[in-house]
Amino acid sequence: MNKISNFRQLLNTTAFRLSLIYALLFSLIATVALSFIYWVAAEQIKHQTDERLQLETNVLMNRYHGGRFDALAQTIQRRNTDSSTTFFIYALLDRRGRDINKSFQPEYISADRRQAYATMTLGAISHLIPVKQKNAPARVLLTLLPNKHLLLVGADLNQQKHLLNKIFSVVISAIAIIFTLALLGGVLMGRSVLKRIDAVRKTAGEIIEGDLTQRMPFTRRNDEFDRLSLVLNRMLQRLEQSMQGMREVTDNLAHDLRTPLNRLRNRLELTQLKNPDMVDYQKSQQDAIEDVDALINTFNSLLNIAQTESGVKRKQLEQVDLSQLMNGLGELYEVVAEEENIDFKYAIEDALSVQGNLQLLAQAFTNLIDNAVKYTPENGCIRLQASRQNDEVIITISDTGLGIPEDQREHVFKRFVRLDNARSSVGNGLGLSLVKAVMDQHNAEIILGDNQPGLVVEVILQAFKR
After folding, report:
1. Dist CA 7 CA 380 (whole Å)
2. What is the sign, positive or negative, of the torsion defined by CA atoms of 14, 18, 19, 21?
3. Rounded distance, CA 367 to CA 365, Å?
């Protein structure tokens, strides 16, 4: 039953059906081609036989013109009785002596109407032919002599017939072999396709069961199945990352929100015990409002990241004057850094433009520069540079702050991730996640490096093309 089921599946594959169609089509083309070859061979054999008949007739006609009629008759009789001459048959007929018109059906008549070619049986040509050969085919050239007699020269076509039969057998065998091989190729191709589809189906079933680590199998042939598998694998990788990110977000969100919510609840409980006119009551209320604002900021950041990653704002892409944006941020943070006693310098090339969303880019670069200011100690320095190299715009932000260990540089882009040396500062661990989401939406690359000491952030965007 399993073999029957597999065979039915094979018959239902598109590859097998296409192979069957191509096998029939190719066999039909081969049949036409080989039939044409057979017809050409038959015509060539007939043409060569006619040339030999004409040559023999010319030799006999030379004898006739050079001598007498009785000499021609003797020559014909001698040749018919010569055992070494089996290919040609000769006859000298009068118009009424032997009427072969009943079986003679000319295929070609010369312009002077003195010669005619025909194909007929050997028994209709001569009574000297053995009984077993009387029905054998013969090619005949009939020539009208000046004395109204007929000179007949015939050629036995048995050898040619055997040759054509062999050619016909070869043609039929070739057609059968071609069809069989094409059909066999279709079966093998169908099995190969069915095997690969079963592998994909099996992997998909495991993924449906919840194992998102599974990937579609592929080979190194780089065919359409491999290209499809690679696309599906990228999709599954993105899906796995999204699911893992959702789990991490849920865990981190529950962990990070528990503390401010408990703190808010405790403050509200203490507020109930205090006199509303007291200063401590007012301070508790203000602290509670700040906690609520912090929670709102956290949820707003999560919402912005979700919107950015889902591509909601992708349709709002336009030409952004990056030189103007970065100069504005440089002027703003130059004042902020001066208040923190940090040396801040920036160098922005003119006419830097990219295709993007101005609001998202401003928010992303603001987060990066704000982090540089936040984690750079007093008397440190920050450098902001923007330049164009070929078709790319490169933004570099370097500082002499705490830096990020090399093994954590990919991890920091996840939500709610905060390094140990940054937990004492204000924040929710969503800033770099938003930056990464914005850069992904702009097909930009963000690279974290070591400034020795400090951190170097390099953002590479595609320059705007008019």
Report:
1. 75
2. positive
3. 5
Site of tokens 């050997």: 122
DSSP summary character for residue 447: E
Instruction: Give the integer Cα–Cα distance in Å for 141 and 56.
Output: 10
Sign of CA pseudo-dihedral 362, 363, 365, 370: positive
328, two tokens: 């504005």
- The Cβ of residue 143 has, within 10 Å, a number of other Cβ atoms equal to 20
The highest-confidence range among 66-70, 133-137, 196-200, by mean pLDDT, is 196-200
Residue 377 is classified by DSSP as P
Global pTM value = 0.46
Task: State pLDDT tens for residues 283-307.
Answer: 767 777 776 776 676 666 666 666 6
Using CA atoms, how far apart are residues 374 and 54, in angstroms rounded to an integer?
112
* Concatenated DSSP letters of 89-110: EEEEE-TTTS--TTT---SEE-
Q: Which domains, from first to last, does the chain contain?
A: 1-211 (no CATH), 224-309 (1.10.287), 315-462 (3.30.565.10)
Distance CA 147, CA 95 (A): 10
Distance CA 392, CA 95 (A): 102
How high does pLDDT run on average in the chain? 77
CB 376 within 8 A of CB 344: no
pLDDT tier at 466, thresholds 50, 70, 90 = low
pLDDT tens column, 418-431 = 554 544 455 556 67
Rounded Cα–Cα distance for residues 135 and 94 (Å) = 24
Q: Are 344 and 369 in contact (CB under 8 A)?
A: no
Largest CA distance in the chain: 160
Kindly state the tokens that stand for 211: 């194992």
Q: How far apart are CA 466 and CA 464, in angstroms?
A: 6
Beta strand pairing call for 381-389 and 343-348: parallel
Q: Report the distance separating Cα 228 and Cα 419, nearest Å.
A: 39
